[in-house]
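HUMAN: You are asked to prepare a plain-text protein record giving the amino acid sequence and the backbone structure tokens, both parts labelled.

ASSISTANT:
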Amino acid sequence: MSYFDHEFSSDDKGLRSVFARFLETPFDIRQRRLAQRIEALRAMDDAELAAYGLTRDTIVAHVFATDRRI
């Protein structure tokens, strides 16, 4: 069973996205990095997550707990 959260989708490659990247703050960069990590983990199937010791319910907590910049 797969789950896709549209809130963390990073498919926008338009002019607005390019301009926004030009004006990014360190907080924006960190948020984008965390969102990409969450998106990558959510794209995995349940067996792959289990190999990391994760479930779908623990992905966000895991990403924030393992972020070294907090």
